[in-house]
Specification:
0% strand, mainly alpha, 59 residues, 81% helix, 3 helices
Length: 59
Amino acid sequence: MLVILALAIVLAGFCLWIIRFVAHPTVRTLLRVFVGLCLAAVVAFLILASGFPVSLLVS
């Protein structure tokens, strides 16, 4: 599980570095939002996979 988290962080950093070279500002912003959402999904998966009670997240 820690390997998945480490790979996600490295891949997100690489994607954010690549986004610097995109010329169109709207596309650049949308790609940053997409990478952020992907990182949020990975963090949510890791929290839920670790056994964190879902009822605390909902209430």
